[in-house]
Amino acid sequence: MEKSKKHLVIAGGGFAGFWSAMSAARHALELGVRDHLTITLVNRDEYLGLRPRFYEADLTGTRLPLRNWLAPLGIELVIGEIASLIPASRRMEFVNGSRVVPDIIYDQLILATGSRQAYPDFAERGRVFDVDTFAKATTLDQHLRALATKGFPTPASRTFVVVGASFTGLEIVTALPSKLEGLAPSIPRFAFHLMERAPEIGQGYAPDARQYITKRLQHLSISVHTGQEPLRHENGQLILADNLRLLTDTVIVATGFTASPLAAAFGGPRDRLGRLAVDAFLRLPGHPEVLAAGDISLAKTDPDHYAVMSCQHAMPQGRVAGHNAVSLLFHKDPLPYAQPRYRTCLDLGPGDALVTAGWERPMKTIGPEAKAIKAEIINQWVTPPTDIADTLAMASPMATL
Asked: Which domain holds residue 151?
């Protein structure tokens, strides 16, 4: 990098990081300062993983090569695991197995390292599954296909447990029946169980939406266990507090997320999920050289609500963060982040979904119409356009204001 150039580093290549990079390049071109700015995106691999799709039966197309967008815009991609961030020297250190990645010095940093699956106490890593990353979703897919190859020979092999009726948990458990039927249509019966420690399914949804979710689970013959969570998982058994024992070869964890541990490098207030508090411009208090976007950021969408860990909020935050990073580097006023509208679209298996509007999450659209909305979200909102000009147009922060 030329010494005369400013260096913007984006840590994380998920939705927040990707759109930070697109927005930064867009704003630098808009200001006529692109030749005076080096943009580096750091990610653990070379892909943008479409994380909201990792529950799907078919993982084809759920990750995209970052270079398809970065290279045409002259954005450098550094592949490596970040070992530590040192705010005092604005330095990023790496550890990447046998490969050595040189330290990076930044003038401005966008912290977009996201979140990771939170594991409950009973879960032994390596003995349960999740869909937090493409690699883990692939591991689960391979496990299911291996069981199918054997013909699902035992009751345990035909019993599937999802722990956590989160948004992701509900999408996983309602997708499983059709996937397994596709893998082994001659198997007479599978057993599906959904565990939730809350007293009812659909926490956070309005009563009408909760009722619809419950009816859909019943329709799919999914047994629901509320008000408890597993105590132990051992010898192929899931043992519950009421001493119910489920013989199962497949336990999938969907108990929510915690923010990237790199948040701890900066101190400052964090919420129970580990997210860093930011100001209205997504800057870290006490660290004017750092912005945070996405799941690692505790950002207010409006005076009464904070963003949730979802691509719905990570993408607009990335657009604002990228714009603001360039503005701050070149002495322009940043823009505030705001996102008062809140909608969810919950996939509920073949031909069905649930759309809500508003923070109380009342039911708005259901059935095939909602399923079509889900497809539109995946194909038009979550997946970036292949055309670079179209992507840059979508990277405008004004779309979120």
From this structure: 134-253
